[in-house]
Amino acid sequence: MPPVAAGEMPDAFPAYVTVDYSAGADETPATYPDLPAKIEQAVAVCRTALETYEHPAVMWTGGKDSTLTVYLLRETAREFDLPVPPAVFIDHFQHFDAIHPFLERWAARWGIELHIAQNADVGAYVAEHDLDPGAEIPIDALSAHNQHHVRELLEVEDASFPFLLDTYVGNHLLKTVALNDTLETEGFDGVISGVRWDEQAARAEETFFSPRHDPEIYPPHDRVHPILQFEETAVWDTFWQYLVPEAVPDYPAGRLPASVEDLPAGIAVEDLPVPPQYFEGFRSLGSAVSTERTAETPAWLQDMANTTERAGRAQDKEDLMGRLRDLGYM
């Protein structure tokens, strides 16, 4: 089969992709016992992805995991003289205010093409009716495309759904449908994502290369997971030992700031590839409407061994994670 052109996603997955879908099965973060081993595996996965897929893209939410993935992917591309793929940001209309400027700033600094994925149909209805989060949206007011997803794939019969990200219908329409529509439009065949084994139970069985080939659910593509093997502590260790010092030359490697005021002289929070919410005590960034900080101290100084990373997320959505992932959620 000849390489697929961008915007021409095939009904079947292209034969030119040959990856080991079992890589990582039955492994845990302990399989990669130290930071060099975790980084080495991440680079190997990134290199395979960049050399295998004709039209890869990396998911970038602005959170710590996806930013680490973008950094490792960019470093791998530089080391092996490979092109840096574009990034996809899913705009679900309920982000923290700092996320958009953070992404725009670092995409420009790192020379990364940024695609914005939105469910424009839902967004237009919200704008036209000036809705606040939580307001009800009639399902029959949506496009046939969105109604198909609600009625046929989600099998929801309700007359409306709340305009909230952390709900079954809201999450699917605002994130998964937006992503799948972008995959269809752009023809991305490998979607590189920053999910981790220890982050959420529904992700614990993932492999480094994971097929999503059913055309009845999503445009056929592969998911690629370079940082499965990272624990939350390893993510922050990589940030402060490597990512931040390389992005900010005057930042001392390994220095953990206790607050925004504790940054080295001459360095502001806007100079760091670290969204300010992590300084404010958030451990995981989801919807600004429903995500809460888990402590008053910065994320990297919290008790990660004895507390839950996603405790600040809406737990109703967390309970539905397995079903949402079956439908294409990250």
Number of helices: 9
Which word captures the global form?
A: globular
Strand order of the largest sheet: 3-2-1-6-8-7
**Spatial gap, N to C terminus:** 28 Å
Radius of gyration: 19 Å
Proportion of β residues?
A: 5-15%
**CATH class identity:** Alpha Beta
Structural class, from helix and strand content? Answer: alpha/beta
> How many β-strand runs?
8
**If you consult CATH, what is the topology?**
Rossmann fold
Known CATH architecture: 3-Layer(aba) Sandwich
The tally of domains stands at: 1
SSE topology string: HEHEHEHEHEHEEEHHH
CATH superfamily: HUPs
The major pleated sheet works out as:
6 strands, mixed
Helix content: 25-40%
Which terms would index this structure?
alpha/beta; 6-stranded mixed beta sheet; 9 helices; 330 residues; two-stranded antiparallel sheet; globular; Rossmann fold; 9% strand
Give an overview in words:
The chain has 330 residues and is of the alpha/beta class. It has a single domain (1-330), classed as 3-Layer(aba) Sandwich (Rossmann fold), CATH 3.40.50.620. The protein is built from 9 helices and 8 strands. Strands 3-2-1-6-8-7 form a 6-stranded mixed beta sheet. The chain has a two-stranded antiparallel sheet with strand order 4-5. β7 and β8 (221-224) form a beta hairpin. The longest helix is centred in the middle third of the chain and has 19 residues, at 168-186. It is globular. The model is unreliable at 1-9 (pLDDT under 50).
